[in-house]
Amino acid sequence: MICYFQGCNETGVTKEHIPPRSFFPEDERHQLLTVKACKTHNNDKSTNDLYVLAQICMHSSPSNRAREVFLDRVAPQLSHNNDALRRLLSKGAVQVPGGVLYPVDQARFDEFFTALCCGLVYKSQKAQLPPNYRISHIYHQLLDNGSAEWKQLVAAVDEFYGAKPETVLDFGRPDAQNERIYTVEIYGVPHFGGSITIVHRFFGVFKVTSMLTRLVER
Description:
Blueprint: E1 14-17, E2 34-37, H1 46-58, H2 66-74, H3 80-90, E3 94-96, E4 99-101, H4 106-125, E5 133-139, H5 140-143, H6 148-160, E6 182-187, E7 196-202, E8 206-214
Antiparallel strand pairs: 1-2, 3-4, 5-8, 6-7, 7-8
Helix pairs in contact: 1-2, 1-4
């Protein structure tokens, strides 16, 4: 079986969890989604996984499960390898009135969510995302500037992608098992009949919209 990642021709020799196992407490890892991955695209990206998980938890409400998962999955890793994760999270931090501003490494986010999208597509269609698709992501919580224009845009996106996909746009359901931590909806014509939109939600509040745009050859 070929690797799940777009454009990879290597054989899948190991299981890749989507989302990664590190996102879930030890006692909630039953029936997690998996796809076949080559050695290059398996969980060698654990640093990215923990970085993204930490940022998602910190940008989510402390009143939901984000705090619990942060304490259970992220906090124990902060001091490992000479504080490598702690230093990565605080890289470029700037003191501001009333606190500290921590920049977000978007390249790490993009790598993480591109891999996640490839896995979800493979799980839904039993096939790789074709090479004529370009992937981009909108990180709603990270881009929120509080402006009226931004709130309008978010409301419009939520209205359009807020319900289950209509039959014609029901690309397939990967059947994510632990919806208290992660939910996903995939909108698109099945069998790669057009562009695809994937809406991810973590802890019910951290939202990412992934746009998988099919490029038309001319």
